[in-house]
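Subject: complex prediction, re-run

Hi both,

The earlier run crashed halfway through, so I resubmitted it with identical inputs.
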Amino acid sequence: EVQLVESGGGLVQPGGSLRLSCGASEFAFSTYWMSWVRQAPGKGLEWVANLKLDGSEEFYVDSVKGRFTISRDNAKNLLYLQMNSLRVEDTAVYYCARARRGHNYGSYYFDYWGQGTLVTVSS
Amino acid sequence: ILMTQSPSSVSVSVGDRVTITCRATQDIRNWLAWYQQKPGTAPKLLIAGASSLLNGVPSRFSGSGSGTDFTLTISSLQPEDIATYYCQQSYSFPMTFGPGTKVEFK
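This time it finished cleanly. Structure:
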């Protein structure tokens, strides 16, 4: 069974940084695009970032461009999200998800999700 | 592409037939997925390609539609189906989700 396990969440002050990790197992990690999706408390789902299987292309939602960086280590089956200049509105549960190709390049749906890690941005 | 869902919530009883509608602001052909999220847990993919049920998803779930209008139907609601359901388009970048439909007991 595919497993995705996130870690690294916590409480951080506005303007601070945090790095999330996602460990993947039971599938060929290096052959899949991977994504981060977030959910603010009591709110809906928002796609955050996608990363190509070899790490050569990244896509971001406009609200995090220039502040967040998605990366991966295929040798260790790990996905990362480096979050800088954090804002109160970044408070959310962050899910790591395996991406499956949609119609246009860069568009995906998500067939497996981790359990999520909570990021709280507050002073 | 903006996604809308209706209703935003629905009160049901065991055995009810439940229909949730999802609408896209432009033609997304059949590039629509449905997810189920139970309280405190991660979303789970139920349906991809508007109507293809994932392995292990009970047959009481079905999806239909193409273009801009889609439906998720639960033919006979079971207690374990109480959840919030989200649609998501994967036709074009950026991927977008509907706001969700909460299915709860009367």
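The interface with chain B takes residues 37, 44-47, 59, 61-62, 95, 100-116 of chain A (CB under 8 Å).

- K.
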